[in-house]
């Protein structure tokens, strides 16, 4: 934005007299200091030394941020087979801190010793192989900024609670820089047999989570990842080794990866038959619905936020597509009657979150905030009704409809999906 | 890399018999299970449920990663006026986890209540202003992936200890996604007077750290940042508000930012006169040496690493320039006699870390590993000698010479700068 265009954005605010400036500059007397930490006194944290270095040696957030945590939508009956959402309403940019990455576990988080961990590759291969973590670290590596989204994210097929925040409606998505070895590099090491068509990936957790992956997905950009946002994977994200399949429903990016078996057809595991299929209106089930389609959501203002006064706000949100880059995002403040193009934050990367922003002046009246993303293939994010017309309301997965946030004259923001 | 080109990279490894495959697939009997967690038994973490969700609700690294921490090079006499380095030897990609971002404090880390924190903007402005954190969050925001480097990083003007790791030679650099308000947006809000030329930035810490910033740097892309890698700033990084000046020595990105005073000349604060100036051979001092020049370092293999066997290794490192994008990085394994171009990991961003990689087959003999970066302006990273010929050895700051790691036939890697 140009410097000239943004004057007086917040309207009247507390202006400063020369005398006050003197105080702020550090000339406050003992009396002022006694009064504590108002804007015009010297606060205690300026009058005293702070914490020394490396305390702790691995840093943690400020105590004032203790409400910014992962949370389940409802208290789970089985905490080892449940999920937690990322607090998108508190986040900025596109990177998700590893400590706030969403979770979905089928038998809890195992505590795996990397020295003992092995990856086995067998089945329709020329040279079955067992690899240690040291072996895997030796291979050529790549890094990619990719989102991961649970196929169960946004359970609004039949609408949701007005009280839901964006953490509850859309929190099962996160974005990280992943580093590891291309799965194609490892399969080349063992040599695929001509009849190879599918790969079974198995986790070392108590669920021995297994999914079948078609060879075209495997040979795309699939990573066997050992690092996330610079450091080694977090336990909840598959430490010490996980699959990362860009743009594909999260449960297939098998965590705690211990085995890859190459076959000539899908293995029909529990997690791709009784689970992770989409029940259609006619009673049939869509199976192997891998790709997470184009989707977006406004994260600010969003459910649970409270606008304190009329005037300027920046509408901020996230958009993503399992098929490539986001081409454009339009934003509406009147429930879809009119739309304005949002600004996309560079760099816009394939199968990565894209941050969008658009200026908005709230007049104090009711408003319905929506965002609609288009990806580089031309796919347009559908309305909830367009989606339900095709898929019905029996499905638990792959909801990518347009989200609506309702702003009341009181400034209260609620879920209107 | 193409699938066809990478066969048999690691040479002979443990191959798998059909029977063993059966065991790995989960058919291990009780006897095998009793034996614990060898590669061919079912490990305890597969036989039991793991931790439930959100424990903790803000995630932490695996207990097996407890050696990956920030560390000072030597135990500091004054822990509140000291620095810690990022463990680059353990990191991948370009993002630095906030918990491992390098530290440099002048009076420790203050614990600031964001509700009480204020930013004052005064001096040669039309409308002096006091802003709350809520006010600042309302302004149009931008996100940028930028490195921060301490001007004192790499203290090898007179060589360093052979025992130094890359955490000790180069650890005072980190890279984050920063989100906040352009400083130019805030200065437009208050209105600069015609004679405005410099801005004093002041921290709310016990040192009231102050630096003078020329207007061209301020009006470039300087951010008043409240977020880092998605979440709000960490306390050690200036919570709740800091300046981020891309490509500029780290101490000027004032943390715990409480005041901006606009003037017509530099303010000659302690930190730009007695400190953070470069003493030249003729006894004069270079002042206002802002830009961090083009630099690179190999992070693997690097000091303290131990190569276990001959054969294939991927040489990995980081390159950066305070003047823009990295154009190319060359790598030598023979002390600079011959050079090979490294592959740069996309996206290559301006004033951001760039990860480079090059394949290497170690023949078991002695080797001298070096990297040399070139930025988009054509600037070539100098050798240590070229740098010393111009600057002498009195300076404590702005060392960007080529780093040499010595590989012994034993596989031990040491600092040979």
TrEMBL record, chains A, B:
The cofactor required is: Mo-molybdopterin
Biological processes, Gene Ontology terms: sulfur compound metabolic process
UniProt GO molecular function = heme binding; molybdenum ion binding; molybdopterin cofactor binding; sulfite oxidase activity
Q: Where is the Moybdenum cofactor oxidoreductase dimerisation domain?
A: 288-399
> Which Pfam family is an annotated match for this chain, by its short name?
Mo-co_dimer
Superkingdom assignment: Bacteria
InterPro entries with a match to the protein in the record: Ig_E-set (IPR014756), MoCF_OxRdtse_dimer (IPR005066), Mopterin_OxRdtase_euk (IPR008335), OxRdtase_Mopterin-bd_dom (IPR000572), OxRdtase_Mopterin-bd_sf (IPR036374), Sulfite_DH_SoxC (IPR030835), TAT_signal (IPR006311)
Coiled-coil-forming residues are none
- Keyword Metal-binding assigned: yes
User: Has the keyword Ribonucleoprotein been applied to this entry?
Assistant: no
Query: What keywords is this UniProt entry annotated with?
Result: Metal-binding, Molybdenum, Oxidoreductase
* Oxidoreductase molybdopterin-binding domain mapped to chain residues: 106-269
UniProt protein name: Sulfite oxidase and related enzymes
Biological source species: Azorhizobium caulinodans (strain ATCC 43989 / DSM 5975 / JCM 20966 / LMG 6465 / NBRC 14845 / NCIMB 13405 / ORS 571)
Q: Taxonomically, what lineage is the organism? A: Bacteria, Pseudomonadati, Pseudomonadota, Alphaproteobacteria, Hyphomicrobiales
